[in-house]
Amino acid sequence: MTTTKLLDLSLTEITLDAPLDHRNPAAGTIEIFARVITAEGGQDLPYLVFLQGGPGHEAPRPAPAAPAWLERALKDFQVVMLDQRGTGNSSPISGRVVREGSTVKAEVRAPLAGLDASAQAEYLSHFRADEIVNDAELIREALGAQKWTLLGQSFGGFTSLHYLSVHPESLAGAIITGGLSAVQHPIDDVYSTTWQTMIAKSEDYYRRFPGDRERIVQLTRLCEQGKISLPNGDVVSPERFRTLGHHLGGQHGALELHRLLSLPHDSAGFAHDLAGSLPFEGRNPLYAVLHESSYADGVVTNWSAERTMPDRIREDPTLLAGEHIHRSVFAEDFELTPFAPVAELLAQHEWNQLYFPEKLAQADVPVAASVYYGDAYVPLEYSMETAALLPNCRTWVTSQYEHNGLRMGTDVIDHLIGLLKGSRWL
Questions:
Q1: Phi, psi (rounded to 5 degrees) for 170
Q2: CA distance linking residue 49 with residue 37, whole number of Å
Q3: Residue 178 contacts residue 378 (beta carbons within 8 Å)
Q4: pLDDT of residue 84
Q5: What is the pLDDT of residue 423?
Q6: What's the pLDDT score for residue 101?
Q7: What 8-state DSSP symbol labels residue 312?
Q8: Is 361 strand, coil or helix?
Q9: How far is it, in rounded angstroms, from Cα 24 to Cα 224?
Q10: How far apart are CA 389 and CA 297, in angstroms?
Q11: The predicted structure's pLDDT at residue 397
Q12: What is the mean pLDDT of each run of 10 residues along the chain (426 residues)?
């Protein structure tokens, strides 16, 4: 462990070796990295481990006023920022662009380099919530903490549910924001529901910005003609362009989308901002490769989002997609192309069960959860079903925030800490 200072914060970095497969330690090891953030005078406070949304994104790095919820959390906890396996400093999974003379190609980096697609799929099958929880347990033990509290955002909330299923004895409490996953529902049900949510959000958007409906039609036609491209040369298909709708699942996302659409389509500003607005890209390849697996509770995904797209949406380009990945993105995004074979294999992989209703019902751990009306990614009705499985779960159901409400300031974290401690009842 090494400790440094950032203003009035102490930052302690931890790097551990963890089994790639906790059930088979002989399969090799990976590195797991976490950073413990402690406010001045907070050395004796209990630990709160942050489980980042995603999958495939590292924990945020602390900075003045960032992330927005951190200052409030540090009043009650020391905060553990865990880079989930395959992200950040935890044996990251990534690709790289290689230039050899006039030839430019993309390839996977170590540890996937040199493995065939089947071996890559086997390797990446160990990067889901179950192994992330096992890694977290190693960090908890290294800190000497008998128990700690979870803060799970989105996919981090899904991971928290698995934690509650398998290691409730390690938890003093759990705070879940936008992440009460469906339990024992087929993945197709989840995606079918989120498609309907996106129809409603698309129509709400055009009521607010009616002129943008025709703008979307125009830009989709340009995509069909191959006239919309990114700075790296990627030509954007109508299917990929439709995923701009993921903005509508976030706070202020409608304004961000409207601002993008106001730019001339042949301008550098539009090309660069479009590249930064598309959800599935090469910086975080696991987000694309493992995305559907995060909803897979003992099933094969088989490109569920693509299969469940309603004909109404397929026929109307103005009805936008959220986090609905389509397999063609692995052919369209230059940096994701090396991951296409393994993504296809993982789409046919039979994933293990993550959530066990009988175990959740026995997990007598205080849980405080924010559930958002109209959540684009985690359907309200399934969230409430899952909350009802937990014997000590208090929910805050609100339309004040979208899926990323935790990032909008201190209100969400303050409210949920209050619920967790029993000082707030709604």
A1: -90, 0
A2: 10
A3: yes
A4: 98
A5: 59
A6: 82
A7: H
A8: helix
A9: 48
A10: 16
A11: 96
A12: 78 96 95 96 97 95 88 97 97 92 89 96 97 98 98 97 97 96 95 97 98 98 97 96 96 96 97 96 96 94 98 97 94 96 98 95 96 95 97 95 93 96 64
Which tokens hold the place of 271? 């090309």
String of b and e for 160-188 (b: at least 16 CB within 10 Å)?
bbbbbbbbbebbbbbbbbbbbbbbebebb
pLDDT score for 426: 41
2 DSSP assignment:
E
**Cβ atoms of residues 199 and 312 within 8 Å:** yes
Cβ within 8 Å of residue 249, ≥6 positions away: 201, 322, 323, 375, 376, 377, 402, 403, 404
Residue where the block lists tokens 């294999």: 345
Which amino acid does the sequence have at 131? E
With a CB cutoff of 8 Å and minimum separation 6, the contacts of 233 are 334
Question: Two tokens at 318?
Answer: 């103005």
> How far apart, in Å, are the Cα atoms of 24 and each of 18, 19, 27, 28?
11, 8, 6, 8
Report the alpha-carbon distance of residue 244 to residue 257 in Å, rounded.
7
Q: How many CB atoms lie within 10 A of CB 420?
A: 20
